[in-house]
Design brief:
Blueprint lengths: L1 H6 L7 H7 L2 H13 L5 H17 L4 E6 L7 E6 L1 E3 L5 E3 L3 H5 L1 E4 L8 H4 L3 E6 L6 E3 L2 E10 L8 H21 L8 E15 H4 L3 H6 L24 H16 L4 E6 L5 E6 L2 E2 H21 L2 E4 L13 E9 L12 H20 L1 H6 L4 H4 L14 E2 L2 H11 L3 E3 L2 E3 L24 E3 L4 E3 L9 H23 L4 H16 L11 H9 L8 H5 L5 H9 L5 H54 L7 H28 L6 H29 L10 H6 L3
Parallel strand pairs: 1-8, 15-18
Antiparallel strand pairs: 1-2, 3-4, 5-6, 6-8, 7-8, 9-11, 9-12, 9-13, 9-14, 10-11, 14-19, 16-17, 18-19
The structure holds adenosine-5'-diphosphate (ADP) and magnesium ion (MG).
Length: about 700
C-alpha cells in the first residue's frame, strides 16, 4: 500500500507539485485555467515553464516533447533537448514559455484530408493545461492540441475540447433553471475499460499478419477455443500476473488509476479499467495506457494485441466507454437524486441523452467505425451495429408511467407532479446484466460499448458531448421561455419520451429478431464503415458540428476523407500481407506436403495398393485447395493492381466489395489446408499456440 502511495503520480506535474513550486498568485490563476478549461494566460507562462523545467530536470528529464494526437491515429511526439549553448563551451538548460504555449510542428506529413492544400502546411501545438504534463523515459511530455496556422483542427483533442465547452454552456443553462446557483461549470466524465490479448513474443515474431496488421489473416480454429468459458474471471497465470503488476506500477507512476484487471471470455484475453476522469484527461490516459501496455508486454516477452478482432471465431476486443456529467460541486447529473427537484433535473438530462442518441444514431455509429471494428460489431459478445439504449425494465416503466400521467403514490396511481413526487427507486444495473446493449444506462452513467479496443475514445466522446449539448440547448431554449416551469418540464419529458422511445430496447441485442424489429422502428443499421461514413456529411450532421463549434464544414469534409482513406488503406495493407504470406509461406509449404503425398501415392502404386488411401485422398484435397488459393491470389492481384475508382467513398466500397470477399475466400481455403497439413511442415504458429501459448 505504501508503495502505491509513494509511486502514485510520481512522474506527473500535478496539482500538488504546482502548489509547491508556483507562487500563490500564479498557482491560483493556473488552477482557474484548469478548472474552467480556458487558455493559458501568457503572463504566467514563464513562471509555469520554469517550474516545469526545474521539476522535470530534477526528476531526470533531458528532453521535452509536445505530445499530440494527429488524425493518423497513433499519438505523435517530437523530442527536443533542454540544452542550449551558452558560449565558452558551456551549456544552459532552457525551456521558454513559448515552448509551453505554442510549439511548431511540420504538419505536412500528417493526414489533413485536403486542409493542407487549402491552408498552410505548418501547424502549431499548444498545451492543454487541463491535462497534466508528465515524465516518461526521461522526457517531459506536454499534452497539446495540434492545429493548422489558420486554426483548423488537425488532431483529435481540439474538437474534444470544443465539445466539452459546448456541453458546459448548455448544461449550465439547464442547471440554472433548476436553481443550482452554486454550480460554476459542468464537465463530462469518462472511464474506459480496455480489453486486450497477450500472446507469446516468440509466436508473434513468426506471424507476419500480426506484425503488420495486428490480426491473424489466416488460422484454423484451435481444437479448444472459448467454448468452456473457463477463462472468464479465471485465475491469472503467473506470467500474466507479473505483466499486470509491472503495468500497474508504470501506470500509477503516471498518475493513472488502473483499477480492475481480470481475464476476459476468450483465452489469453484480459481487461483493464481505469478510474474515470474528466473526459480529456481520460482520453489522454487511455492513449497512454495502450502505449504502456505494449511496452511492458515486450519486457515480459509478450506481445499485447489491441486489435478489435485478432482471432476469427473468438471474441473480439472492445473498450467500454462509461460516460456521465459532473458539476464542479461534485454532483453526478445522471444520478437520480432523492428530492423531487433532483429527480426532475435527472430526467431532463436523461431525456437529452435519449433524444440525442436517437436523432444522431448515425453519428454515434460513425464515431466508432473502422475496418477493425467492422469485424466485431454484431459478432459474438459484441454490440450489434444498431444503436439502441438499454434503460432497464424498472426505469423504463417509470418513464412510461410519466408519459401516461400515472404514478404509484402510497397505494394508488395518480398524476405525477414533478415538484411533489419523488421517483420510485430502481436498482442500479451495475452488474452488466444485459451485455448485448450498445448503450446501457448503469445507474448513474451510460456505458457505450461499441468503441473498438485499438481506437482512441476521443471521437466517440466528442460526438456524445456534442449531440447531448445540442439537445440541452433546445431544452434550455424551451424551458427558459416557459411561464410555468414545472408544467413545461413535464411536457418536455413526456414529449421527448413519446417521440424517441423507439431507441430504447431492453431485450437481447444479439437476437436476429431485434434486427427486424429495429428496422420496423426505423433505426439505422450500418453494417460496414463505408455504409456508416456515407452519412457523415448529411446536412443535419454537419449542422450539429458547426452549430456547436465543434468542427467547421471544411473540417468535417477533411475528416470524412481521412476516415475513408484510413479504412481502405487498412484493407489494402491486409490484402497485400495476406498475398505475401500465401505466396511465400503457405503455398511453398503446401507444395512440400504435396510432394510427400505424391511420393507416398507412387509407392502405393508400385505396391499395387488400392487407390483410396490416406495419401491419395489427402493429395486430392491438397491439390484442389492449392488450385483454389492460386486462382483467388491471381484475381486479387489483378484487382489490387488495377486502377482504383475515383473518390474516397468509391475506393472504400471497392475494397469492401471486391477485396474483402477474396480475402475471406483465400482464408477459407488456407484454413482447410492447415487442418490437413503435416504439423511439422506448416510454416507458422497456429491458433493453439497463439491462444494457449502463454504459460
Ligand atoms: P462495473 O465494473 O460494474 O461496470 P464500475 O463502477 O466499476 O462498474 O465502472 C466501470 C467503469 O466506469 C470504470 O472505469 C469507472 O471508473 C467508470 N465510471 C464509474 N462512474 C463513472 C462516472 N460517473 N462517469 C464516468 N465513468 C464512470
Ligand atoms: Mg462494463
Amino acid at each position: 500500500m505504501t508503495k502505491i502511495m509513494e509511486m502514485f503520480g510520481k512522474n506527473v506535474f500535478n496539482d500538488s507539485v504546482m502548489k509547491e513550486r508556483l507562487s500563490k498568485s500564479t498557482y491560483k490563476q493556473l488552477n482557474e485555467t484548469i478548472k474552467r478549461g480556458t487558455d493559458l494566460n501568457s503572463e504566467i507562462a514563464e513562471e509555469v515553464a520554469n517550474a516545469m523545467k526545474d521539476w522535470a530536470i530534477e526528476n531526470g528529464a533531458t528532453h521535452f516533447t509536445h505530445w499530440f494526437h494527429p488524425l493518423s491515429g497513433a499519438t505523435a511526439e517530437k523530442h527536443e533537448s533542454f540544452v542550449s549553448t551558452a558560449g565558452g563551451g558551456k551549456i544552459i538548460l532552457e525551456f521558454s514559455p513559448t515552448n509551453l504555449v505554442k510549439g511548431e510542428a511540420d504538419a505536412s506529413s500528417f493526414p489533413s484530408g485536403g486542409l493542407r492544400d487549402t491552408f498552410e502546411a505548418r501547424g502549431y501545438t499548444a498545451w492543454d493545461p487541463t491535462s497534466y504534463a508528465f515524465i516518461k523515459d526521461n522526457i517531459l511530455y506536454i499534452p497539446t492540441v495540434f492545429c493548422s496556422y489558420s486554426g483548423e483542427a488537425l488532431d483529435h483533442k481540439t474538437p474534444l475540447l470544443r465539445s466539452m465547452e459546448a456541453l458546459n454552456i448548455q448544461a449550465m443553462r439547464v442547471l440554472r433553471l433548476f436553481g443550482n446557483e452554486d454550480v460554476d461549470h459542468v464537465k463530462a466524465t469518462a472511464g474506459a475499460e480496455q480489453e486486450y490479448f497477450l500472446v507469446d513474443k516468440k509466436y508473434y515474431d513468426k506471424r507476419e499478419d500480426l506484425q503488420l496488421t495486428g490480426r491473424t489473416l489466416i488460422g484454423a480454429p484451435s481444437p479448444k477455443g472459448q467454448e468452456m468459458n473457463d477463462h472468464y474471471y479465471g485465475s491469472i497465470k503467473v506470467r500474466v500476473a507479473e505483466f499486470m503488476r509491472d503495468l500497474n506500477e508504470e501506470l500509477w507512476k503516471l498518475g493513472i488509476q488502473a483499477k480492475t484487471e481480470h481475464n476476459e471470455v476468450a483465452p489469453s484475453q484480459h481487461e483493464l479499467a481505469n478510474i474515470f476522469m474528466t473526459i480529456n484527461v481520460s482520453v489522454d490516459q487511455n492513449n497512454l495506457t495502450m502505449e504502456i501496455m505494449k511496452k511492458v508486454a515486450r519486457k515480459h516477452n509478450l506481445e499485447c494485441l489491441l486489435h478489435e478482432k485478432p482471432f476469427a471465431g473468438i471474441n473480439g476486443s472492445g473498450k467500454h466507454n462509461n460516460w456521465s456529467l459532473k458539476t464542479d460541486t461534485g454532483v453526478n447529473l445522471l444520478d437520480p437524486g432523492d428530492t423531487p427537484s433532483e429527480n426532475a433535473q435527472f430526467l431532463i438530462f436523461l431525456c437529452a441523452v435519449i433524444k440525442a442518441v436517437d436523432e444522431y444514431q448515425d453519428l454515434i455509429r460513425i464515431s466508432i467505425a473502422s475496418a477493425g471494428n467492422d469485424h466485431r460489431l454484431g459478432g459474438s459478445e459484441a454490440p450489434p451495429a444498431i444503436v439502441s439504449i438499454f434503460l432497464g425494465d424498472e426505469l423504463t416503466e417509470i418513464i412510461e408511467d410519466i408519459v401516461n400521467d400515472r404514478v404509484t403514490s402510497g397505494h394508488k396511481k395518480e398524476a405525477f407532479q414533478f415538484n411533489v413526487h419523488t421517483l420510485p427507486s430502481f436498482p442500479k444495473d451495475n452488474t452488466d446484466r444485459n451485455r448485448t446493449s450498445p448503450f446501457a444506462f448503469t445507474g448513474n452513467k451510460f456505458e457505450f460499448r461499441m468503441p473498438g479496443s485499438s481506437a482512441s475514445i476521443s471521437t466517440p466522446n466528442t460526438i456524445l458531448n456534442m449531440v447531448v449539448a445540442e439537445e440541452l440547448k433546445h431544452f434550455a431554449d424551451e424551458l427558459e421561455k416557459a411561464s410555468d416551469i414545472n408544467e413545461a418540464i413535464h411536457k418536455l419529458i413526456k414529449e421527448t419520451i413519446k417521440n424517441h422511445k423507439r431507441i430504447i430496447f431492453n431485450g437481447n441485442g444479439y437476437d436476429d429478431l431485434w434486427v427486424r424489429e429495429a428496422e420496423r422502428r426505423g433505426l439505422s443499421n450500418y453494417r460496414s464503415t463505408p455504409e456508416a461514413l456515407a452519412h457523415y456529411l448529411d446536412e443535419k450532421n454537419v449542422r450539429v458540428f458547426t452549430d456547436n463549434n465543434v468542427l467547421s464544414e471544411t473540417e468535417c469534409q477533411s475528416r470524412y476523407e481521412i476516415y475513408l482513406e484510413k479504412y481502405y488503406k487498412t484493407i489494402n495493407i491486409e490484402a497485400r500481407t495476406l498475398l505475401d504470406m500465401v505466396k511465400k509461406d503457405i503455398l511453398p509449404s503446401a507444395l512440400k506436403f504435396e510432394n510427400i503425398l505424391e511420393e507416398a501415392v507412387n509407392n502405393e502404386l508400385k505396391l499395387k495398393v488400392k487407390k483410396n488411401t490416406y495419401a491419395n485422398r489427402t493429395l486430392n484435397k491438397v491439390l484442389t485447395l492449392n488450385c483454389n488459393i492460386t486462382d483467388c491470389v491471381e484475381t486479387m492481384e489483378e484487382k489490387l493492381n488495377s486502377s482504383l475508382p475515383e473518390g474516397a467513398l468509391e475506393k472504400a466500397c471497392f475494397y469492401r466489395d471486391e477485396i474483402i470477399p477474396l480475402m475471406n475466400e483465400i482464408r477459407e481455403n488456407v484454413d482447410k489446408l492447415e487442418l490437413i497439413t503435416d504439423r511439422s511442415i506448416w510454416p507458422m504458429p497456429t491458433y493453439k499456440e497463439l491462444l494457449f501459448g502463454v504459460d
